[in-house]
Write a structure and sequence with these properties.
Distance between the termini: 22 Å
Strand content: 25-35%
Order of helices and strands: EEEHH
Low-confidence stretches: none
Largest sheet: 3 strands, antiparallel
Shape: globular
Number of helices: 2
Radius of gyration: 11 Å
Bound molecules: zinc ion
Number of strands: 3
Number of domains: 1
Mean pLDDT: 88
Helix content: 25-40%
């Protein structure tokens, strides 16, 4: 899930799984498709 967040008067889009920030919602959504940080505590 991509989370919209405000920081330094700018809007960022955060990958809820790994916390990575993007300035384009499309980039965040694209990242999330390939994000492998899903539930890391359960994988290991
Ligand atoms: Zn991610």
């Amino acid at each position: 899930m991509v989370v919209q967040t405000e920081r330094d008067d700018a809007t960022w889009y955060e990958c809820e799984q790994c916390g990575m920030l993007f300035d384009e919602k499309q980039d965040a959504a694209q990242h999330e498709d390939t994000c492998d940080a899903e539930d890391p505590s359960y994988i290991q």
